[in-house]
């Protein structure tokens, strides 16, 4: 299928190459590997083309949620300062994993390097709630 092109490139080629540009068709964004170790889990998530400050991890109600957002723009002008091309994109995506109610924020270790987020989550058994015995007073 022929696509419209401008300046020798397909308009959609760059759209699908950018982070979040092809959000619905992207197969590379937030691919996650989870490794079960003796002490816990190692979670490795690919977030290519994203800066560390655009990645947020939150633990709430036993769910670890990783949010990634990106806002970027690219301006190209000719020698007279007129726009030849102006592109902008923004987007966000997130993934959630149940890690259990016993895991705290301090237990999770995170490291971001070269477009890869690595999280170490310890295995913790949920402490069973101690059933409190309540007696009914009996008169007589």
From TrEMBL:
PROSITE patterns: SHSP. It comes from the Bacteria. CDD domains: ACD_LpsHSP_like. Residues 23-139 form the SHSP domain. InterPro entries: A-crystallin/Hsp20_dom (IPR002068), HSP20-like_chaperone (IPR008978), Small_HSP (IPR031107). Belongs to the small heat shock protein (HSP20) family. This is Hsp20/alpha crystallin family protein.
